[in-house]
Amino acid sequence: MTDQKKVFPTPIADPDTEQFWSAAKDHKLMIGSCKSCGEKYYYPRGMCPHCGGSDVELVQSSGKGEIYSWSVLRRAEPPFAIAYVTLDEGPTMMTNIIDCDLDNLKIGQRVELKFSPTEEENGAPVPTFKPV
Q: CATH number, domain at 117?
């Protein structure tokens, strides 16, 4: 297993993401849900990317999904994996895969949410994933 102690930048909340980052402090991954068309989406925003509707809300994700695609950045120190993870609820999100052997990642591999700390001690953690 690769020891990946990557330090993540502290996110800066804006009016569209404040509720998302507040939930992250409680280790809850929130995704957008449109009340007009019923589609779920990621990243948080005030308008549905599917139908353009503004009747949207945040709902909690299970935090489970699978790797859709990934890349290992080996020139970084330490090396790390960035990936698209398709959540069980449907949306695909870009994230980091942590706590794993970078050489054994696979498309379709099941992963689960793990919030990772950021540079600021009281900053919201960022959603990352680890293999199940």
A: 2.40.50.840
* Residue 108 or residue 5, greater confidence: 108
Gap between the Cα atoms of 114 and 112, Å rounded: 7
| Backbone phi, psi, residue 45, to 5° | -160, 165
User: Is 87 a member of any domain?
Assistant: yes
* Tally of domains within the chain: 1
- The DSSP element (H or E) to which 64 belongs, if any, is strand 64-73
Q: 77 vs 9, 39, 71, 81, 129, CA distance in Å?
A: 16, 38, 15, 12, 19
For the entire predicted model, the pTM comes to 0.90
Q: Give yes or no for a contact between 90 and 40, defined as CB atoms under 8 angstroms apart.
A: yes
Q: Which of 56, 106, 61 is nearest to 87 (CA)?
A: 61
Residue 111 tokens read as 């992963």
- Between CA 97 and CA 76 the distance in angstroms is 15
Q: What is the mean pLDDT of the chain?
A: 93
> d(Cα 75, Cα 80) in Å, to the nearest integer?
9
pLDDT at 1 over 80: no
Question: Is residue 124 domain-resident?
Answer: yes
